[in-house]
Amino acid sequence: MKKNISSIIVILALIGLLVATFFLQYEFLFLTRIVSLIFAIVYLVIEVKQEYFSKRKPLFILFSVISMLVIAVGIIVDETSATDGFHARSFMLLVFVFILLVVSYKDLYNKNEGGK
């Protein structure tokens, strides 16, 4: 099965952006950025091992739900510990992550349907 190089490049760019944010605003959403970096690395592994996860879609869905919940908890912890108040716009990160997960799942589904 041919690897989707553009998806791997996007994930690597996301990892680079997350690493760069530690040097720009290190005190804002610190825990959330660490959690997001860990999950981005794991999704890179999922993208590389796409054949394995295309056959085990419930595992991908379970991991997606867990990552959404952990990122939400990270945002809540970061926002409650911040000294400048609560920002509801931080939860837009969850919408962005959800869209990326839906696109990744559709990519897995299309790879599995094409392989049959």
TrEMBL record:
Organism: Planococcus wigleyi
Protein name: Permease
Positions of transmembrane segments: 7-24, 30-46, 58-77, 89-108
Domain of life: Bacteria
Keyword presence, Membrane: yes
Keywords: Membrane, Transmembrane, Transmembrane helix
